[in-house]
Amino acid sequence: MNGIPLPAAARERAMDVLSGRRPPVPARDAATVAIVREGDGAGPEVYLIRRSAGMAFAAGAFVFPGGSVDPRDTDHEIGWAGPSPQWWGEVFRTDAQTARGLVCAAVRETFEESGVLLAGPGEGSVVADTTGDDWEADRLALLDRSLSFADMLRRRGLVLRTDLLRPWAHWITPEIEAKRFDTRFFVAALPSGQRTRDVGGEADKVAWMRPADALDAARRREIRLMPPTYTTLAELAEYSTVSDILAAERRITAIMPVAVEVDGELRLMVPDPGQRRR
């Protein structure tokens, strides 16, 4: 693989980091969720959002809902139904406290960026509709951080349905980048009765697409995909139903693209994830 050419604007910083003149910035813990649903007879579809052109990271790229872990995501008062933080920590090879924050961030960010809420009154139940004005008020309050996710769930008598999430991958932003994330990828099926909506904010466009169609559009340069999103879509395209996706057993290993010089040009090389199924 020849890698991805680095734009000229990124070369100076990359050379500084590679030469040791500038230390890499720390990567912040983050979570992202590929929401999937059954399509119209042609295989599963995945929900994608296009980040606004003015965003500091991945501007203009189509991504899955997600974002950084908020310190309040580790609140032990958040109701929990499903695999424990300890279980998630083992899967993602981290401690239980970090895993708690990652799972909560995954659910919170999904609600903030799509309107989908993976929570319910208890084990085996899930919120049926989140399109009312009261839900929108809560979503906006979460966005401006005037409301914590724990307080929203507590007030509504809800618990996280962690069993609705599946672990999928672990990607770390290259060391040459000015803004870096240590991101765990999840997948989840769109809950029955809920629907995504164009909620604005960091996104200027949303779309449901078959993974293979999104990949084709990227190859035609109609849409832009970051390497983690491209790879995840390629993996999802291998499955013919949502049930198959949710049943996949994944071996989670960290992947971090690296910048190398090839024929006098700096390129971003993405390590081969290899066989990720157990």
Automatic annotation (TrEMBL):
Origin, by domain of life? Answer: Bacteria
Fetch the InterPro entries from UniProt. NUDIX_hydrolase-like_dom_sf, NUDIX_hydrolase_dom, NUDT19
Q: Does the keyword Magnesium apply?
A: yes
Query: Its Gene Ontology molecular function terms?
Result: hydrolase activity, acting on acid anhydrides, in phosphorus-containing anhydrides; metal ion binding
List UniProt keywords, sorted A-Z.
Hydrolase, Magnesium, Manganese, Metal-binding
Which positions fall inside the Nudix hydrolase domain? 26-231
User: CDD domains in the record, alphabetically?
Assistant: NUDIX_AcylCoAdiphos_Nudt19
Names of required cofactors: Mg(2+); Mn(2+)
This chain belongs to the protein called Nudix hydrolase domain-containing protein
Organism, per UniProt?
A: Thermostaphylospora chromogena
